[in-house]
Design goal:
- The protein is built from twelve helices and no strands.
- By secondary structure, the chain is mainly α.
- Helix 6 packs antiparallel against helix 8 and helix 9 packs parallel to helix 11.
- The longest helix has 27 residues.
Length: about 260
């Protein structure tokens, strides 16, 4: 009975917070719901733990899934209280403390990039290494428990962002996802000419007797990938999402052949 009363009381507290803050709106847009980066975390994790009962765990899990940091609208650091010039994502500019996951951040924001298909790989690699230095467990082990928790939460989206943005195909799929456009990578391409070409290339890969032959085929495949990558970029910029999806499906076909060649080299 005591645990049940505790859960009911906690639910009432949450209801009052929902009515008092426009930040905790349940009408989140589809773009927020569709992207993995928009995971939410409690700003004051230590203050939110009511008990270890199963009822409380369900309540807190729902709270973490549905709502984001209570103070993220202010852009104020949880540690030193300084309001950042821009919304804090990974670390405070003043005290350098790792911040909670921010729901408004997408993969491009993580790396300080414009939301575009064409990006600089060198900047991506450098920024990724910088974030790893801030978030690696060996480098935050002397920090507070709260900051270590935030660093662990930040690490996953940073890794996902890097792996997604570094490859043109996954970057293209992610960009369309931000626009609410789903891409079925397993959908069969019905273009007879493309299917015939793919079969011919795969046959050539199977029959290649040495690495030189494979590299020659790989060069041809990469040229095709670049053609369709450029096609996607043009279609995406013009908001022609149907053409962009078509380009992605063709990129997928050539990318899979390239992966097979890499395995054989």
């Amino acid at each position: 009975m005591q645990k049940r009363n505790l859960c009911v009381a906690a639910t009432k507290i949450l209801s009052r917070k929902l009515h008092s803050s426009s930040l905790l709106s349940t009408n989140m847009g589809p773009k927020l719901q569709s992207s993995r980066i928009f995971s939410c975390s409690l700003y004051h994790a230590g203050e939110s733990r009511v008990s270890k009962s199963s009822c409380d765990n369900i309540f807190l899990a729902h709270y973490r899934k549905s709502f984001c940091s209570l103070d993220e609208n202010t852009g104020r650091c949880w540690n030193c209280g300084v309001v950042a010039v821009s919304k804090p994502f990974l670390s405070c500019d003043s005290c350098k403390s790792v911040q909670p996951v921010h729901t408004s951040v997408d993969y491009f924001h993580i790396f300080g990039l414009e939301k575009a298909f064409e990006i600089e790989d060198t900047n991506l690699e450098k920024t990724y290494k910088d974030w790893q230095k801030k978030l690696h467990p060996d480098l935050v082990h002397m920090k507070s428990e709260k900051e270590k928790e935030f660093a662990a939460e930040q690490s996953s989206p940073v890794i996902d962002a890097y792996r997604t943005l570094r490859k043109p195909l996954s970057r293209a799929i992610y960009l369309l996802g931000l626009e609410g456009v789903h891409v079925d990578e397993e959908r069969t391409v019905l273009d007879p000419e493309l299917l015939a070409e793919i079969l011919d290339i795969r046959e050539a890969v199977d029959e290649a007797s040495n690495s030189q032959s494979l590299k020659q085929i790989q060069g041809q495949v990469q040229e095709k990938l670049e053609i369709w990558s450029n096609s996607f970029g043009s279609a995406f910029d013009k908001k022609k999402f149907e053409d962009a999806v078509t380009s992605i499906q063709r990129m997928t076909s050539y990318d899979r052949i390239n992966e097979d060649i890499v395995k054989k080299l």
